[in-house]
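Appendix B: complex inputs.
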Amino acid sequence: ENTAELRPTHPLAIAPVVAPAASVDGFAKQFLQNLNFDQGVTLSNSDVNDQYLALAYTVRDYLMARWFDDRAQQKAQQNKTVCYLSAEYLLGRQLDNNLLAARLTDIATEALAQCGIDIDDLRQVEIEPGLGNGGLGRLAACFIDSLATMSIPTIGYGIRYEYGIFRQAFNEGQQVEQPDAWLRMGSPWDFAHPEAAQTISFAGTTETYDDEGVERTRWVPEWNVLAVPYNMMVPGYHNGRVNTLRLWRAVATNAFDLHTFNSGDYVESVRAQTFAENISKVLYPEDSTPQGKELRLQQQYFFVAASIADFIENVLPDDFDIEKLPERVIFQLNDTHPVIGVPELMRVLVDEKKLEWDAAWAITQKCFAYTCHTLLPEALEVWSVDLLGHLLPRHLEIIYRINDEFLLEVRERFGDDEMLIRNMSIIGEHPSRSVRMAYLATVAGSKVNGVAELHSQLLRDNVLKDFATMWPDKFTNVTNGVTPRRFLRLANPDLSSLITEALGAGWTVDLERLRGLEALADDADFRERFAAVKASNKRRLSSVLEARGEAPLDDGHMLDVMIKRLHEYKRQTLKVLHIVSTYEGIVSGRLDVDEVQARTFLFGAKAAPGYGMAKRIIHLINAVGEVVSADERVKGKLKVVYPANYNVTLAERIIPAADLSEQISLAGKEASGTGNMKLALNGALTIGTDDGANVEIRKLVGDDNFFLFGMSEPEVEELWAEGYRPADFYQKDERLRSAIDLIASGAFSGGDRTVFEPLVSNLLYEDRFMALADFSTYLDAQDRVDAAYADQDGWVRSAILNVARSGYFSSDRAMRDYLDRIWHATPVS
Ligand code: AZC
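Resulting structure:
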């Protein structure tokens, strides 16, 4: 910020910036001005997108003054800043959230009404920024919301992908991916700051040189790109705070190469630009599987290097003593994607700030902490030494030195146990030499945390066992959380009003207050009102689905939802087997259709475009849905709905309407889950395995209000050790046999037996995630669900208790845990 050189004399430039007064008239005036002067249209010739943009600018105007203050304060005060480094932020729509945070919802609604505009029409045109894949990205968005609400100085750093997560469509039941051009209609919520761009280097060589008698190393890179920051406001809820989310966009350093241009090769001269801009072009659409792509490593280094430089140069005061860095910042590593920041900070401290290695390492270790989000071994990121050495030669040298010193420490502690050394080395040798990013993060981080109790335990006992033996105090747990502002207050306004009427408004920032609802679970009048809210949320969802060309939901159906990324470990296939089995039971006469509980099975899921098996499962769900929903013999009792392009916006409509939440991963595979929390908080009952945060949900809501099934994690291990033969389970359970046979027979593929054959044989002969082993207890649990649902009064009581006892899963609580256990940062006053 260049304000130091400016000598403003105009009185308005000296006076503090004040937000426009919040009144209906003031808001309307500001809105109309923005429509005229930013959109360049009058009200009468504006279209709905003009109006939406003008509204967004108006909300922004109101938040701006606080944003100026908070950034100035962050610079001036000595508070520690939480820098959340995340390759993904799955933000969801911004308008409603920002209106709510700034207490402007009613004012804006009324002001627009005076202009003849229904604010709901404007809400619909906002395209959500889908800058994330799933749980990990949505978690980052919840965390920055909570940190702003708790007045913790925070900067979220990430990438401003030009294309976010792909738009999913179905073609004959199969997923097709389309680009998500989310910026097409304008991006009113962010501000480009090209003047604050950072130059980010790649490739080249390193060399040593004599620096006044000291031998130092420097990196001589081969090419550069510019990282241009785009700032987004992250307003706290009703506290007047506005934090910053700073997303980087890649831009070529020289828009064209003049020499090439003059020589007449115009195309070649823009090639460099395209190459540079590719770095922030598209979000990698993988979830829980790494893709060894060079571009992805470029993305990671690009945003992390820009963020570290930005923090040191622009957020810290100019005369800052770099040795005090740990007092002013914690860089939280959201999974391994930003871990290249560790050698980058070392490079800055040693090569640029000229600190001794040991001093630099001591600082670095205090500045980073690492969150792991997985247990799948194949999801732990590794980079080949060749690739990393080519793209970031200096960083590879630094990683080698970190590893050498670390392995010396291991030898000192445990002796010359070569097996142990090999297992713990940051450099893996098989199948080829590579850098294990999770190990680098563990060695460098002040703390390492898992995202639910069971997950953190399994990290200590299995995935990072040797490290936990070496540094037991480094390991901790922070169970995930979700923001109650977006996922209860905004997504479920009717339930929110009911809660506020019962308990007062404080629950929005103190979610444990929901406990107060426990007593009301026994109040018949309250139960009736709670049930009415659920019914009305179902009707609202039904119209959303109809607007997307789906059939409306049937009254009286239980709404059974499974909404999450499509992955074998999450076991959508097990859900399909339940549906097929129920269908087959009716058709074969094993089940009396009149006794079957009417259900709508709702799926929402995207599969990674390169994940063939996941895509086949999508095809199967759609195929089964088409047959089952249409077969007259089931008398409309079973419906399958699978709206395409599940995203945050759709989640906000589905979750409040759900009766049953499917959380059926194989025990020991789902790190936490966060959809499970959102659904319980909105009064869905869970059917689930003892996995991830399900364990904690069940403990809190009580066994009577949760349908547990399946093997526990130790039982899973035991079965593997014994030798798992899925075909044995197929043989043993007649219901399972009939269901699988029906799929294999081509009943869902127009008689073609080949379509789902790979899926069927995978289940019978491999079944990595043991769907067949858990099938029979799953069906038993579904019977218990049916019985419970038949007693509507009892069901509603359980639903209320789920809400009442889910306060623990607020991301505000998660942030307090991070602050106490890891960050030790304090609020600004
Ligand atoms: C997810 C985990 O699968 C999920 O269990 C957890 O709730 C969530 O993170 C938040 O912690 N992991 C990912 O989304 N992982 C990647 C690489 O996308």
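The chain has a mean pLDDT of 95.
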